[in-house]
UniProtKB/TrEMBL annotation:
Domain Histidine kinase intervals: 1-55
Gene Ontology CC terms: plasma membrane
Broad class of enzyme this protein falls into: transferase
Catalyses which reaction(s): ATP + protein L-histidine = ADP + protein N-phospho-L-histidine
Organism for this UniProt entry: Candidatus Chlorohelix allophototropha
Protein name as it appears in the record: histidine kinase
Keyword Transferase: yes
Record keyword Transferase present: yes
Residues bearing the modification 4-aspartylphosphate: 128
């Protein structure tokens, strides 16, 4: 069982999709790092993460200055996984966004409507397709488009064989991001939907 913990969709929890550690593993690997695990029954588990330091910090900072937007933008993220929420918040904040989080569709719709009423609309919404026990992406985007036909929404999912993923534009989504993803991949998707918008 231990050898499978980084596999996508492997989980020992009944109401989990097993993407948390898979996302961690993918992000760490794409940065040239490693993650290992040591566990002992009834005593606990330790994860060891090693990521190489960059010798090009100044160049990276210079590149960041040229890629970040000039002003703070607002984004709404809907995902039931806390780890994914935190990852998206961190990534979006690096790209210059202020971020509001929602756990399911009902909360996302409420927050979106409130922002419109305050005349501080979200410029971007990222919606998880599957929310166990709650309103998922398919119903959420339909309701958001009723409220605001011009909504800019990206669907996020770890399930690449879902019909919504294959034909996301038909459901009202502007873009798609597949889990797990890197900051660069997210930035490319956001850049693409901004150009279309």
């Amino acid at each position: 069982m231990l050898v499978k913990i980084f596999d996508p969709y492997f989980s020992t929890k009944e109401k989990s999709y097993g993407l948390g550690l898979a996302i961690c593993y993918s992000i760490i690997q794409k940065h040239g790092g490693t993650i290992t695990v040591d566990t002992e029954l009834y005593k606990g588990t330790t994860f060891n993460v090693v990521i190489p330091a960059s010798r090009f910090i100044e160049k990276a900072k210079e590149k960041e200055k040229t890629t970040l937007p000039l002003a703070k933008w607002s984004a709404l993220v809907m995902d039931n996984e806390i780890l994914v929420q935190k990852t998206l918040r961190f990534a979006l904040e690096r790209l210059g966004y202020t971020v509001t989080l929602a756990c399911d569709g009902r909360e996302a719709i409420k927050l979106y409507r409130e922002a419109l009423e305050k005349e501080t609309p979200f410029l971007l919404v990222i919606i998880d397709l599957t929310i166990p026990g709650g309103m998922g992406g398919k119903e959420t985007i339909a309701r958001l488009r009723e409220i605001d036909p011009a909504v800019t929404a990206i669907v996020s999912s770890g399930y690449s064989n879902d019909l919504v993923i294959a034909t996301y534009r038909d459901y009202g989504f502007t873009g798609i991001i597949k889990k797990p993803f890197t900051l660069d991949e997210l930035q490319q998707v956001i850049g693409g939907v901004q150009e279309k918008g």
